[in-house]
Every structure is written in structure tokens, then in C-alpha cells.
Amino acid sequence: MSIEELLAARLRPAFDQVAGGSADPAVRRSQHADYQADGALALARGLGRAPREVAAEVVARADLAGLADLEVVGPGFINITVQTSALHSLLLQMYADSRHGVPAVPSPQTVIVDYSGPNVAKEMHVGHLRSTVIGDAIVRLLEFQGHHVTRVNHLGDWGTPFGMLIEHLLDIGEQEAAHELSVGDLTGFYQAARQKFDGDPDFKRRAQLRVVALQTGDATTRRLWRLLVDESEKYFLSVYSTLDVTLSAADFHGESSYNDELADVVDELSALGLLRESDGALCAFPAGFTGRDGAPMPVIVRKEDGGYNYSATDLAALRRRCRAYDRAVYVVGTPQKQHFAMVFAVGEAAGWVRPGQVEHVAFGSILGADGKMLKTRAGDSVKLSALLDEAVARAAVLAGSEDVAHAVGIGAVKYADLSADRVKDYVFAWDRALSLTGDSGAYLQYAYARIQSLLAKGGEYTPGFSLASPAERALALQLLGFPAAVAAAADALQPHRLTGYLQALGSAYTTFYETCPVLRAPSADIRDGRLGLADLTGRVLTLGLSLLGIRTPTPL
Ligand code: ARG
Q1: DSSP 484-532
Q2: How remote is the CA of residue 191 from the centroid of ligand 1, in Å?
Q3: How far is the C-alpha of 246 from the C-alpha of 140, rounded, in Å?
Q4: How far, in Å, is the centroid of ligand 1 from the Cα of 230?
Q5: Which of 180, 232, 457, 502 has the fewest CB atoms below 10 angstroms from its CB?
Q6: Which of 310, 318, 336 to mutate to test the pocket of ligand 1 (most atoms within 8 A of CB)?
Q7: Is the pLDDT of residue 179 over 80?
């Protein structure tokens, strides 16, 4: 139980008595005391009584003996000061618990999380980076809460471009193609195919025939297609390993894996009367979606030529996921907001989706220092692997070894991505991402490394917590806020709530360290009590960062 919950649980009986029913104490951190309970204001309104009087009655009835002292202030707030002995025992409990106070959820769910989703024979772009990094943090948070999480990498591995890609593969030879793709020259490969497709009518014809051969299951064509997919998957896996992302080969579940279900999806939707023909295509028109002209907007389920598209595949995926999981989460950029809203609406009309079962976790773009979409100096879109290489190279200046440079460089990129409110666009700047003083991953990794060297110098000590000075108390209260921060980040699927917490923890620690000498403390007890605070801070930093997929190397 978090400290807020503990305080609320102890206050609730008094609130309920005064309310003659149930009333929320509304406990939160406070500028004026350790915590405050604001519930008397709403309760007084409901009862038609004076708020201060209601607050005083709550305080008179409340029993927080051994935990906290209460005081009515202002128009009817209740200030809460946690007793030092209670703080001490809460910290000891938190220290002894390997989860540092974060409870496992009482009823775990099966959750499927769709993230990363790059496209075969195409370079991953920064949108895929965000999906990969945010999705992986969400997976880690939910798993830590005890949910049963399935990762799914909805690879773009099907569609008309494969005709030209396979013909290009045949032109340059299998070995050369495999080589280009495995070293990550996906853009070069794709563009070469595209150029021939656009400029060479004979190639174009071959490519079109090849699409038909692929769709009808021609063995050679399928084998060549598989080669493209396999080589691309190998490359994506190498990016995941660079990124310290938990996606594995078993999680690839590309668009093509729904092929056999598409006709049945069409049958089911049409039996339900949800499909209409429009310009030869079969379409669903979910309620509430209209274009600028006010005309209903279609989800094309089967194209005029009988083929299927991205939406059809997503409908099949949705049906399968809703049958098999309590909850389905899609970590995909904001530009696909309408696509998912419409696909989900069709799924609801078909009775596949229960209320609250599916969620599009959208995110904005990464902008360069100029406020425009991140571009290289030459004006090209940034290649993901180049961005990551640059991160590691820049971090090498701060780091003592290759391993550490990797942890700091990759951590910087991931932290920058996770610390921004995901729905907004954010500006990426190297100096901020790698700053040792600001809101950065490097700052927290550095704080962690400093704590470890302090503990090494301190040697053996009897765990305890020194809580006499304001900086020590402030650090203690910040530490105790960890479970609530994890819950906030996991419940809203917003990793930035956890980075915000860790940043505040880093700064509470810095203030403590600057004002409270540890190794030269006035007594052995105080020294031990300060080492205890430093130790617990280090443990919370490393656990918190690990839930975001960021490492804490030592020494830095
Ligand atoms: N491959 C897609 C893209 O690059 C992302 C897939 C997202 N997942 C999904 N179920 N549609 O835009």
C-alpha cells in the first residue's frame, strides 16, 4: 500500500462517520505539510455545513495514532504530518521489499501490447522508434504490476510493394539482396526497386504479375518473400538489441499472418449487415465518422480488385485479440488515430469489443531544434541506426567504457522520448538528452553511480534512516511516493509520470547530499542513517529506470 493509501485508509472511517455514508478523504502531497486531506470541502458542500467545522469533526474522530498528526488549516484543509517513527518503519519496510512497496495488482489481466510495427524492406523511422521505446516501457510497467503481457510486433510484411521488391531481389541476386538487408540498407533496397517500378514498364509488369503469384501462393515467390521478411526481421532484432528492448523473434506477428482470416471477417461483418458496396469495394460505415462534406466515411474492408488492405488486417487482428485477451493496447503514432477509432468502432458494432477493452496509445512526433520534423543536415529523414550510433558516440565522452557509453547513449535517447508527455510533439536536443544536470537519463544514471561510490566508501553499515533535517525528511517522503508513481504511469500508460517522479527523487537526493554530510556525519548513527537514505534512493532509481528499459551502470 502506498503511503497516500495508508493515510486515506486510516482517515476514511472518520470521514464516513461524519458523512453518514462514504466520503473520499482526498489525500495528496502538500506544500504546507507532508500530505493534506482535502475531502472535508466536498463533504461540507454535500452536507450543507461549514467546511472548517466538518474538517474539525473529522480530525476529532480520526485515529491516526502512531502514524501522523492532523491539523485543520485554511477554509477546511487537513494538514497531515507523518510521525518520524512511522516514516522510519515505512522506509524499513520499503527497503526490505524487493518491489520497494509496489504491490502486485489483485486481479491480473491478460494484455496484448502491439508496438514497434516496422515494415519489411523499409528503414525504421523515428515514429517506429517512439512506438518501440514507449511500448516497451508500457510492457515492463504492466508486467511488473503482475499482468500477463503478450508482446506483438505487427510487422508490415504484406501488400502490393512486395511484387517490386521480389523482382528487384531476383535482379540483383538472392545473396546480394540478403546482404543489403541484413546490414540495414533497407532504404537503398526499397528505393532501387521503386525507381525501376516507376521508370521501367517491363519491370512494372513483372512486379504486378509477382503480386498475383504471391497472393495465389506460388512456391518460389513465397520463398523469396520469406527471404525478404527473414532478413528484415534479423535487422530489426539487431536494432532491438541495441535499444535494450524486450521484443524477440517470437513476437513477430506480421500482417500476413491474418491472411487466412480475412475472408471470414468479411463474411461475419456482412452477415451482421455491417458492409455496403461502394465503388466496387466492400465498406463498413461506422456511426459518427463523416468527412468534411458530411458524407459518412468508409472503412474499406475488401478492395474493388478483391484484395485486402491495412484496415482489413487490423479488423482480423482486433477480432482475434478481443477473443483471446482481457485488454488490447496499440502503441502507434497519432497520425493513425482515425484509423484505429474507425476500426475499433466497426469491432464494437460487430460485438467483438467489450467497453474499455481496446486502447490506442497515441504519441506525437519528434522535432528537431528548429521545431520541424527531425531531419539530417542534408534534409533526409533520420535513419534510426544512425541516430543510435551518434548517441553512443556522444556518450563515449562522458563514459569510462564502451558498455557504459552504450547504456548512457541509448538511455539518453530513450529517456528523452519517455519523459515527454507522449501525446505531444517534443523537441529532441543532444545537449539536453546528455546533460548531467537537467531532466535527463544521464543525470539519473550519474546520481545512481555517485550513490554506489558513496556506499562503497561507506562500507558496512546498520540500515537505518536519519530523519532529523528537512532535506532528509523531504527525501524520505519522496522515496515513499514511488509506488504511487508506478501506479500512475502504469494506469494511464504514461511513462513520463515515472520519469517525473525519478527526476524529483534525483533532485531531493541532490539537496540532501549537498546539505547533509554522509561520511563525515556528526555521529555513527547519523552516518548510518544517511547511508540508508542514499542506499534506498539508489535502489529506487535503478528499479524505476529498469521499468523504463534504462540501465544504471556503475561506475559511470
Ligand atoms: N506497420 C505500421 C506502420 O508502419 C504500424 C503497425 C501498427 N499496428 C497495427 N496493428 N496497425 O505504420
Answers
A1: HHHHHHHHHT-THHHHHHHHHHHHHHHHHHHHS-STT-SSHHHHHHHHH
A2: 21
A3: 9
A4: 18
A5: 457
A6: 336
A7: yes
For residue 51, the CA-to-ligand 1 centroid distance in Å is: 53
The set of residues, in sequence order, having a beta carbon less than 8 Å from that of 111 and lying 6+ positions away, is 142, 147, 148, 149, 150, 325, 326, 327, 328, 329
Report which of 290, 227, 248 is spatially closest to residue 116, judged by C-alpha positions: 248
The residue whose CA is least distant from atom 8 of ligand 1 is 154
Closest ligand 1 atom to 128 CA: 4
Digit-coded pLDDT (tens) for 102-160: 999 999 999 999 999 999 988 888 889 999 999 999 999 999 999 999 999 999 999 99
Sheet holding 281-284, edge to edge: 275-278, 281-284, 299-302
Cα 258 to middle of ligand 1, angstroms: 14
Q: Which atom of ligand 1 is closest in space to residue 336's alpha carbon?
A: 12
pLDDT of residue 368: 84
Question: Separation of 521 CA from ligand 1 center, angstroms?
Answer: 56
- In 212-323 the beta strands, taken as DSSP E runs, fall at 275-278, 281-284, 299-302
**C-alpha distances out from residue 380 to 187, 213, 393, 394, Å:** 11, 35, 21, 21
Report the residue among 151, 190, 332 best suited for mutation to probe ligand 1: largest number of ligand atoms under 8 A from its CB.
332
**Ligand 1 center from residue 118 Cα (angstroms):** 7
Q: What is the dihedral of CA 316, 319, 322, 324, to 10 degrees?
A: -80
Ligand 1 atom closest to the Cα of residue 156 is: 1
CA distance 1 to 540: 16
| Cα-to-centroid distance, 296 and ligand 1 (Å) | 24
DSSP characters for 388-457?
HHHHHHHHTTT-SSHHHHHHHHHHHHHHHHHHS-TTS-EE--HHHHT-SSSSSHHHHHHHHHHHHHHHHH
**Closest atom of ligand 1 relative to the 340 alpha carbon:** 11
For residue 383, the model assigns a pLDDT of 78
CA distance 536 to 321: 40
Q: Look-up: residue for cell 456511426? A: 287
| Alpha carbons 234 and 528: distance in angstroms, whole number | 50
Residue 266 cell numbers, joined: 468479411
Please provide residue 263's backbone torsions phi and psi, each rounded to the nearest 5 degrees: -65, -40
CA–CA gap between residue 401 and residue 554 (Å, rounded): 10
Q: Enter the C-alpha cell of residue 250.
A: 517470437
Phi/psi-derived region of residue 117, left when phi > 0, alpha when psi is between -120 and 50, beta in every other case: left
Nearest CA to ligand 1 atom 2: 117
Ligand 1 atom with the shortest distance to the CA of 310: 11
Grid cell in block for residue 315: 479488423
**Under a CB-based contact definition with an 8 Å cutoff, are residues 113 and 317 in contact?**
no
**What separation in Å is there between the alpha carbon of 540 and the centre of ligand 1?**
35
Query: What is the grid cell recorded at 372?
Result: 520541424
Phi–psi pair at 247, nearest 5 degrees: -65, 135
Residue 377's pLDDT band, with cuts at 50, 70 and 90, is low
